[in-house]
Amino acid sequence: MRKIKIYLICLIYSFLLIFFMDGLISYLLFDGGLEIDSFVFGVNMGLTFIISCFIITALGEGLGGLVLFLLTLVLVIGNLIKLIYHDTILKPADFALISELIEIGSRFVMPWEIGLLIIGAAILIALIFKFRRYIVKALIPRPMPLTALVFLLLIIGCNFLIDGSNSKLDSKTRISSEGFMVFNFINAREITDIYPEAPEGYGEEKMAELKTEFDSIGSEVSDVKPDVIVILLESYFDIGEVEGFGLSRDITKYSRDYETTGLISPRYGGGTASTEFEVLTGFSSAFLPDGVIPYNVYMKSGDKEVPSIVREFGKNGYKTTAVHPSTASCYSRDKAFSELGFDEFLTIDDFDVTEEDMTEDKMTKDFKVKEKIQELLDSSEEPEFIFAITFESHCPYMNKYNEEDIDFTAEGENLSERNKKEVLQYARCAMDTSLIVKELTEYIDEREKPTLLLCFGDHLPPLGGFRAIGYLDDLYTKYGTPVFEYSNYKESKGFGTEYVSPSFLAAHILREAGTEHSSYFDFIDSLTASNPILNIDFGIDYEDENIKKYQLLQYDLFFGEKYLEK
Questions:
Q1: What's the pTM?
Q2: Cβ contact 474:255 at 8 Å
Q3: Are 283 and 551 in contact (CB under 8 A)?
Q4: Mind listing the pLDDT tens digit for each residue in 349-380?
Q5: Burial of residue 441, with CB atoms counted within 10 A of its CB: 0-12 exposed, 13-18 middle, 19 or more buried
Q6: Cis peptide before 396 (omega within 30 of 0)
Q7: Mean pLDDT across the stretch 290-305?
Q8: Averaged confidence pLDDT in the chain
Q9: What does the DSSP 8-state code read for residue 490?
Q10: What is the DSSP letter of 394?
């Protein structure tokens, strides 16, 4: 009788979880258009039933039920956050970002919500204390070893039966054919495969052959050593051109004249460090497990030497400085920047900020980053390579500015009042970002020393209004951000293409600076015309010969023996 009761509860639980999550994913990721056929639904329900039965029979109804409840809570809340703010589904790699989630997530919580949480926690503690005898009794493990073993063997059997060959496809394609639980099951079992295997043909002889090919490409080296400024503009895109938001004036016009191309970010709504990694190394996230942010997974020791444009400029006598008005540990940048070869990393502790220099939610305004860059350049005799990250435009967009600080409106027909508030708060930040780009070009014009400036948006902000106006329906608008370039001594040769992935910026920066560099950057630069976009959602031809060479190059320098540097 006990077993029948467990099976019945697990069956109902499995049906409700799969039905609810399929509906949630359909509504938030497919605008209600997700179609899961009955067979896929049945497979997902069966897998969920087997896993839940194993947990309950291994631990007993009380403890097992609690564990199952907590796991379900993590899955549902985690997927809800990813779907709302990043338009994608939870992956195991996301759990490496727990500290960042807590730091940023705390900014979303309003004072009244904190009050409710405290009251709720107090009530829960009181109830636990009152009924502690019953709770302790219920949580005493009551395993059913033989039954649990049967379900464990079934889970192991599922591992062999469930095909994971589509794991390189984008989440939207996978979820429609795999279903919620199978999708998560495949991701969970592949968590140990976080380090890519060596591509076919990898070895010293093959890399020597490629090095000869790369060396033959060549590029111009200049006698001029310009100061080079590269700025990651947090969550910046040209919101002033989005008609659906109905902004009463063009608040991003200040920088538009300096836009040279569009960037196709590897992420939507977050994951700054993925874009940052590509720009600084020339490596592509498309060759790494989906969802992995390299800083938090591969670069946490701080004692490796990762090839980068930072090191290339360092070899040419440049002082290399990273600037970010946030904490050093965010995205493990303190370790990652050491591995990338920066001489110095300036964080919030190196900024002199007052209340007026920060938004209402305590994020340093962009003009302070601009001032820090100018301070570094004005006080240096040697050539400078500065990589800066702005912070003002980071989500959430609820209480950055008071109403009197925003002198424009958003009257998009399909926007809710919450949507409008978010749009206005973000647009106020974007206006400041656009202004500092223009002001830096004016500063550069006044300098006698040759200076290059390249700025780019790392990804779109996670605005709820995007769904209301259908902005995410087009991949180019979903992932597209601007790239700005300016110089006081030469004209940029540009990219020769309308859009590029961030991994191509590194080679472009070295070419524009006329700096001597490793020849593999010349190969990467040569791919810009033929393979400008490397983003899994756009589709990647992994059988393309140039893509295979790129994968070999990246594996060798990031995971392999670094034959290309010998």
A1: 0.87
A2: no
A3: no
A4: 999 989 899 998 889 999 999 999 999 999 98
A5: buried
A6: yes
A7: 85
A8: 88
A9: -
A10: P
